[in-house]
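Subject: design request, 224 residues
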């Protein structure tokens, strides 16, 4: 029994270590696309664990105000995707629960888009500029918008939950899994838009390490 327990612990530890190593390793390997550069200023807001894409509320072919019924003062919007239960029940890392993690790891839970809006340009060390071309901005916007689940009338479903007064959760398509994490979701959007990023980005590091190192601070307006 003791040997079996030791084997199980060693096996789980090995799997976790292998996953982490593969995630950081493939995240460090860049796609063959050119580094982000263009006349359209978007942004990535990221911490150690999670990353969001930032858009002006209008431009790049998607009207985020209309799609998510944002308040009139919203000028910029940060959008992230993930497991519904994990996202809604874990506003801070200290709120993390083993049951929430276990449910998310099964890949069977519903997904949501988390949408936060700002009356002005987001600023701070967590804001990383993402300068892209007009075509790349439109590709990113289309990629994100397609995950918003809509009813038969084309309206998005907003949940009665939020972290504060300036954000909301919306029903989304797709399933979170250890392969398709919230960061890999963003990475797939970047790769679809032909923007250099990691080959596989389960962790935020795979997104951030391929952004210009000096590009921190603000988001500019879309230039067409």
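Subject: RE: design request

Done. Sequence follows.
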């Amino acid at each position: 029994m003791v040997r079996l327990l030791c084997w199980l612990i060693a096996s789980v530890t090995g799997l976790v270590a292998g996953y982490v190593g593969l995630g950081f390793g493939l995240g460090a390997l860049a796609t063959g696309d050119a580094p982000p550069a263009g006349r359209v200023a978007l942004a990535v807001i990221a911490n150690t664990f999670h990353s969001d894409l930032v858009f002006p509320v209008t431009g790049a072919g998607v009207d985020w105000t209309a799609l998510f019924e944002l308040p009139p003062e919203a000028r910029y919007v940060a959008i992230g995707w993930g497991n519904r239960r994990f996202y809604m029940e874990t506003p801070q890392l200290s709120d993390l629960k083993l049951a929430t993690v276990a449910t998310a790891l099964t890949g069977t839970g519903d997904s949501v888009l988390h949408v936060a809006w700002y009356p002005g340009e987001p600023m701070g060390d967590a804001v990383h500029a993402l300068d892209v071309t007009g075509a790349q901005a439109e590709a990113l916007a289309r990629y994100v918008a397609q995950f918003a689940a809509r009813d038969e009338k084309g309206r998005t479903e907003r949940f009665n939950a939020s972290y504060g007064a300036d954000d909301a959760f919306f029903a989304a398509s797709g399933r979170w899994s250890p392969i398709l994490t919230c960061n890999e979701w963003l990475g797939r959007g970047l790769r679809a838009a032909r923007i250099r990023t990691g080959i596989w980005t389960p962790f935020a590091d795979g997104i951030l390490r391929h952004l210009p190192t000096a590009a921190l601070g603000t988001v500019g307006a879309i230039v067409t």
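The chain is about 35% helix and 20% strand.
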